[in-house]
Amino acid sequence: MKGSPMSFRTIRSRTAAAAASLTALALSGCATMGGPIPSASTPITQSEAQQGAEANKEIIQQFGAAMSGSQAQYVEGVGQRIAVQSGLATSPSAFKVAMLNSSVNNAFAIPGGYVYTTRQLVTLMNNEAELAAVLGHEVGHVAARHSQRRQQAAQQNALLGLLGQVVGSVVGGGVGDLISQGSQYTQLLTLKFSRSQELEADALGQKYLVSAGYDPHAMATLLTSLAAQNALDSQLQGRGNATVPEWASTHPDPASRVSAAMQRAGAATGRTERDLFLTRVDGLMYGDDPQQGVIEGSSFIQPTMRLKFTAPGGFYMVNGTQAVSINGQSGQAQFTLAPYSGNLETYVRQAFSGLSNQQQISPSQIQRTTVNGIPAAYGTARVQSSSGAVDVTVFAYEFANNRAYHFVAITKAGGAGVFNSMYQSVRRLSASEAGSVIPRRIDVVTVGSRDTVRSLAARMAYTNAQEQRFRVLNGLSSSDRVTPGQKVKIVVRGS
């Protein structure tokens, strides 16, 4: 979460954003590479170009700032070369490809030639063909005008408010992950593609790979890494069910699509550019950006804001540019900030008023308190939903420099106390504590004659699951070994 004022977003803004990541990566069982392939698409229209330009600024703000430098330029070049295969434009420069500063596995595209991937997804890849596969599949959705069809469908349904979305995830209401206070562009990124649309984009994406000279099997290898990463995340976060990824809630689990991707690729071959890719991603930031705060174990630490809090046992956190979400079986919460006028009680009431566009939510009373020397205020409202009664709590804190931060938590009625320890854990960081937060980065190393998976994994900048993290990062199965002279990625601390 960045250290700047922002409007309140949905309680699952980052997981909803991450859900867009595999919009194109959840491959469907369709024809092999020798089977029917959709025809070339209609070129980008003037209207689409204008729409894309208008959406681009907001999307970058919502999902992470666009990165610059040689690494971003490399991603842009690969994206342009694969996107031009779509027939949407004849010149690679017609496509605007950005690598976003985000710590979630995410990629998407919008009409007008705008294509995006996060740095975190790039770090999970192991060759250039995998990067081209991701971006090509996203472009396939644009080439087939799938987002326009989603927009038409969305306009036929009223947008859900924040409360409805959270109630659905907490008490099983089955509602979607629309971003109620975002624009039409960010809303569309979280809508489902139909199975037929996924099939069409699958075929287009692999067609682009072949025409650009890449190995079409790269789609399957990336999907394998994504499935392995999700399983590892589920294990580390204490989530029991890893079959439905948080970032894939709008489409099928990629683990079930690997064989289909391999079948589509068939006997086709092509270049992967593994060593070139690894050289280009060397030094890329991995995981949370300290400017947005970092999650270490069960704690969230924001050195810029100089604050820290700890999630309750059994909950896991997802960090993002707009907010931090705290997720568990017994409730969900979000930590964020908003413009502050100097009155904490007014701040709490405004946070309540922004929760739903369908009903007015307000607490019966707002109470003042102090948490670790920080002035605070909170209130709880009981709300009736179609799935039953829920308790909604806003707990706000007044920090220095005329800033306020707050939690919004939603639980089943009577369960609001599950977050009490988290509310009481908020504290200020000292200057030395803030200065000790150092980002993690990718370090590409060459395997030596005495190196093993275990010895290399021991160099990973983590205190747990080092070997599992190393294997997933490098696309290695549980039985794969490393060989001398091979380039591999490890994660290290470094500014």
From TrEMBL:
Q: Give the protein's recorded name.
A: LysM peptidoglycan-binding domain-containing protein
Q: Which GO terms describe its cellular component?
A: membrane
MF annotations from Gene Ontology:
metal ion binding; metalloendopeptidase activity
Q: Which organism is it from?
A: Tsuneonella suprasediminis
GO BP annotations of the record are: proteolysis involved in protein catabolic process
> Coiled-coil intervals in this record?
none
Q: Secretion signal: which residues?
A: 1-33
Task: Tell me the Pfam families matching this sequence.
Answer: LysM, Peptidase_M48
